[in-house]
Design goal:
single chain; 179 residues; alpha+beta; Cyclic Phosphodiesterase, Chain: A; 5-stranded antiparallel beta sheet; 4-stranded antiparallel beta sheet; 9 strands; 22% helix; 39% strand; globular
Length: 179
Amino acid sequence: MKRLFFALWPDPETRARCAAVAAALKQAGRPVHPDNLHVTLVFLGNVDEATETKLVEAAAAIRFARVSITFDKLDYWRRPRIICLSGKPKDSSVALLVGQLNTIAAALEIPTDDRPYQAHVTLIRKANRLPPLTLEPFLWQADAFCLVESCSTPEGVAYRVLKTWQAYEDQTPIDSEVD
């Protein structure tokens, strides 16, 4: 069994921005390792090899547009004891992608979270409070999503990207005429 989730993976610049915010908050708890920073789309949990194969096949059929999320707020979530960046999608592309991924999970009888989707990046774990910090809003753009495995190591959890799917590019010219 593998512990899996679908996610947006940051480009180097976005990763550096998130890591800088986490570093500024390090006194509040345990910072997430920069290599583990991501936006979870759908958490799948423990999945066997046959189901993983079906997930990969089904995800390959998804057509999705580039995703843009403006991260503009820091939040403290008491129950999981995390500090995270919270964001607002610029359009419906994130919701559509999450909906398609949840549909795949449901078809494979994988239970998923039924709460409304909230785009976030976990920065600090084992936090007790949110210290004051001014956050400069920034845009996270992703032209791909991925299937990620959560691996336990002696140093803690490490995330490993198993498969990545690219957004489609609409090649239809805007001013084309139909004969």
